[in-house]
Amino acid sequence: DPLWYDGYGNVIYATDTDLFVTTQNGTVAGQSIVHCLDNSSPAGALPAPAAISISGTVPDKFKINQSGDVLTVISEDWTGTSRGVVTTLQTFSLADPKTPTKLGRLQLAVGEQLHATRFDGNRVYVVTFFQTDPLLRCSQTTVPDADGVTAPYSLAECLCATFDSVSDAAT
Fold first, then answer.
1. Whole-model pTM over 0.85
2. Side-chain-side CA neighbours of residue 70 (13 Å)
3. How far apart are CA 18 and CA 39, in angstroms?
């Protein structure tokens, strides 16, 4: 039977063993659901997908990474804060693919819009920015350590006067 996901803004991320389809949550505005499908069957059979609710939305496939049994998702949440957007890193265990469990969460930037990410082994580089006027942007590159999957933490931050000075590092 074919799988069908309604909606808009769907994001697809695939590895050699898993397929992740991110859709907008139809009942909670501003949140995504990551549907996890095991595509390792040589016959092409897809078991029933597991679903993970994400705080915020996942803008593109570069905000998702799987390393072993750990799924890492970077999202931006425009709800629940007076300062606008919140960028968040969330980790989930896929040890039992039928019932993924939340491992950890790290709030990266409050009031700064998510722009770029780059996963590099156990690290992820996240570029956010806060636009103060059309000419000046303050950027932040955060390097959370994915080794601490149950308690992710930021290793470093780089603040720059212009957005362009950090965009090449993360794209």
1. no
2. 18
3. 5
